[in-house]
Design a protein that fits this description.
With about 90 residues, this protein is mainly beta. It is built from 1 helix and 5 strands. It has one domain: Nucleic acid-binding proteins (OB fold (Dihydrolipoamide Acetyltransferase, E2P)), CATH 2.40.50. The chain starts with 6 loop residues before the first strand and ends in a 21-residue tail after the last strand. The model has no long low-confidence stretch (mean pLDDT about 85).
Length: about 90
């Protein structure tokens, strides 16, 4: 197995922990501690409890992982319309 080879799993966020960590239950009922990938933090992709995510894990430590993708909600948009609201002062 090459050093760069990562394992990918699907799971559900069960708990949002402080400091940007998440408790994720994988589809095989294994619970891990995960953090959001840098691109998710950069583009401010919010992850809440109940979201479906894709997690990358190294084969050396199967208790920790990195969330690199959050699946879109099936029942509509969870975060609104995706457009930013601007408020202007009236003079």
């Amino acid at each position: 197995m090459a050093k760069e080879e990562l394992l990918e799993f699907e799971g559900t966020v069960t708990e949002v922990l402080p400091d940007g960590n998440f408790r994720v239950t994988l589809d095989n009922d294994h619970q891990i501690l995960a953090y959001a990938a840098g691109k998710m933090r950069k583009f401010r992709i919010r992850t809440i409890a109940g979201d479906r995510v894709r997690v990358e894990m190294t084969p050396y430590d199967l208790d920790k992982g990195r969330i690199n993708f959050r699946h879109k909600a099936e029942g509509g948009s969870a975060g609104g319309t995706g457009q930013r609201r601007q408020q202007f002062k009236r003079r």
